[in-house]
Amino acid sequence: MQRSWTIRFASLVVVGLLGSLVHAQGLLIVTNTPDRVMLPRPLPPPQPPAMSYKIKELAVHARLVDQVARVQVSQSFVNTGSRQMEVSFVFPLPYDGAIDQMTFLVDGKEYPAKLLPAAEARRIYEGYVRRNRDPALLEWIGTGMFQTSVFPVPPGAERRVTLRYSQLLRKVGGMTDFLFPLTTAKYTSEPVGKIDLQATIDSSIEIKNVYSPTHAVDVKRPSAKQAVVSYTGQGLVPVADFRLLFDVSKGELGASVVSYRPQQGEDGYLLLLASPQFKAAGADRPRKTVICVFDRSGSMSGKKIEQAREALKFVINNLREGDRFNVIGYASEVEAFRPEVQRYNDSTRREALGFAEGLYAGGGTDIHGALSMALGMLQDSTEPSYVIFMTDGLPTVGETVESKIVAAVKARNAVRARLVVFGVGYDVNSRLLDRLARANFGRTEFVRPNEDIEEHVSRLYRQIGSPVMTDLAVKFELDVPRVEEGGPVNRLYPRQVGDLFEGEQLVLVGRYRKTGVARVWITGRVSGREQKFDFPATLVDSSPDQSHGFVEKLWAMRRIGEILEELDERGKNDELIQELVSLSARHGILTPYTSFLADDNAAPGLVSGGAEASRRAATLLDRLGEAEGKAAFVQRDEMRKLAGARRAAPAPALRNMDRDEAVAVNAVQMLGNQVLYRRGNTWYSYDVARSSASELAGQVKVIERFSDEYFRLVRETTPENQKALAAQKDREELMIRHPAAKSGAPAAVYRVK
User: Fold this and answer.
1) What is the distance between the alpha carbons of residues 504 and 522, in angstroms, rounded to a whole number?
2) What is the pLDDT of residue 101?
């Protein structure tokens, strides 16, 4: 008997002209059994099921030519069950999906595809959900769907499915937006073996900013009009869709502003990206002064001193002709390569390398003396100066009082030198190092005992080794200024913009209350000369959807980092603690001081950020007083990551301060821009969890999963709520707020059982 199989493809997020999203990437649906077959989930059942599969590899290759994406997605599936599977693939599309040249290949054989209208596709989606009683497909109800015939998969067999398509990308605020959903890969019995994502950008105009708010990508620029973006992961359960933004423009500095305002009358959020593309010849690049101050105390003996010496040699070898430099080694005594800074050339380079070879470990740690000597050598403020400072211990020689060392070093810094600090191991005074860096326009890098000092120093020096624009200042102005109302933008982070370096970009976030067309002014010194650049920006009055919601979370992460720094420097403050708890709860950004938010035994009211939550946070914040040891090291490392966040965290995460280990968080979920908290057996969306029982009285309506009313809610609610419904598991309840509440409709809160 001839069999007829249906292939329904799923999981490759496509952005249409109006910004609608479609998930597509490879979700297999078993069609050859009358029994209930749960769609695969991240946690496999105890016994190997008759029907299950895993994704061995997901490879995405995209070529973005101006505003057109040509994408090929290949997935290798393995039947991990004990029976043959006859499968279908689901590939949903938005109503306005601008996609053409759709091709399906199974092990190299091409299959024709048929487009189903949204109404027919919805019936198919709901049919699978009703039959399997697993809501994994709910995120795609309301979209159209491609259909094609496919293949059986014997037990243990592997099949490779390839999808090719072309798509017109949307462009908002000058930024071209490429979105690829990885999150559908979480519906497998095991983590994805390998994810390999490559995107090549080819533009007819020079590419300026290339930015991913979701993943730590590697960006290479073969030419001014081409960029290659890559991301690789192994053994992962994806928790965030991949997103890539880029802009193009002519000129030496490119800047774009992405703004997001969830509701009128509330503050909006903005993200500024700026990339210098100056093409000065090597001789015309701004010269700099670099002084390396390296710890050679007794605790540095063995492998540490070897790594430190190699790191020092890396910096020396990568200075530029014409730079000025010096090297200082310190222990109980402080010694310098030369009494004053030297002009860098081949001769001084070789002599400095010889000095580095002669450094040996022994003695105490005179931090005050070493930094005083280094800063005393800097006299010229017309060129940028950097002091690269490393220590693995506490101050034991000379001045040892933390506050006096910070004050003395700050007073000694007459040329606005940037102090780049490396704290090596848990024995350092982490608080002292943080305060030294903050007081001297720098940053702190923490090196764990099992990490390579040379790798940390060389990686950071590659970033700061070629400053192209220094002493930056950023200003926003509305085209129609209202002087009496003040500036349009507030709480910009980072507060100290610092310098821009070759191949890097400025990532600045802020809030705004006044909307409209604005102009951004960026001033700084280029090759010793002050220059000013201006760019247009739009601060939107309201956002039509949450596609730019990541901007708000990115701002919240940096604000939390600043709050922790303020509490660290100035002591406890009730208002700051309340703001810390509120931001952490609203955005699911967990810190060691708000870890109680992830306690599923706690009362739902804790999420509201009330008095009890603030009291708990205040108690945990007592640990900020720890200056030394593993906990202090971990606290300040986490604080630095929050304050310097360059992308929105994909999922809640915690780190145990005493053990310096990642802590699994099972009571908090991030779904798009929505946060869910579990209390007992019930998951609450944030806006429900923060409400009291009296506030919810008369609003809650109970519905059964997979009932007609349930599917009606799925069709009518927000994409975020659809994600929450799709994530719900058996024997769990879910409470979400339906957006009808905004119009005063009854039964705005649903309890799904």
Assistant:
1) 16
2) 58
Sheet bearing 207-211, strands edge to edge: 170-172, 175-180, 242-248, 207-211
CB 384 within 8 A of CB 418: yes
Q: What are phi and psi of 657, to 5 degrees?
A: -70, -35
Q: Select from 634, 627, 603 the least CA-distant residue to 616.
A: 603
Contacts of 277 (CB under 8 A, 6+ apart): 206, 208, 224, 251, 252, 253, 254
CATH for 253-282+470-539 (3.30.420.40, 2.60.40.1230, 2.40.50.140, 3.60.110.10)? 2.60.40.1230
Give me the phi and psi of 699, to 5 degrees please.
Answer: -100, -25
Q: How does the average pLDDT of the chain come out, rounded? A: 84
Quick one: angle between helices 708-716 and 118-132, nearest 10?
Answer: 130
Q: For 169-205, where are the E strands, in sequence order?
A: 170-172, 175-180, 192-202
Residue spans of beta strands (DSSP E) within 465-615: 467-478, 489-493, 500-501, 506-512, 516-526, 529-539
Cβ neighbourhood burial of 339 (10 Å; 0-12, 13-18, 19+): exposed
Residue bearing tokens 């398509």: 165
User: How far is C-alpha 473 from the chain's CA centre?
Assistant: 24
Q: Look up residue 262 and give its two tokens.
A: 């969830």
Give the separation between CA 248 and CA 273, rounded to whole angstroms: 12
Residue-wise over 637-663: b if at least 16 C-beta within 10 A, else e?
bbbbebbebebbbbebbbbebeeeeee
| Rg of the chain, C-alpha, whole Å | 28
CATH homologous superfamily, domain 286-465:
von Willebrand factor, type A domain (3.40.50.410)
More confident of the two residues 405 and 501: 405
341 CB contacts (<8 Å, ≥6 apart)?
A: 289, 291, 324, 325, 326, 377, 378
**Which fold would CATH assign to domain 7-247?**
Immunoglobulin-like (2.60.40)
More reliable by pLDDT, 263 or 563? 563
The pTM (predicted TM-score) of the whole model is 0.88
Angstrom distance (rounded) from CA 385 to CA 415: 8
Helices 346-357/303-317 angle, 10° precision: 180
More confident of the two residues 98 and 310: 310
Residue 417 predicted with pLDDT over 50: yes
| Contacts of 304 by beta carbon, 8 Å cutoff, 6+ apart | 361, 392, 424, 453
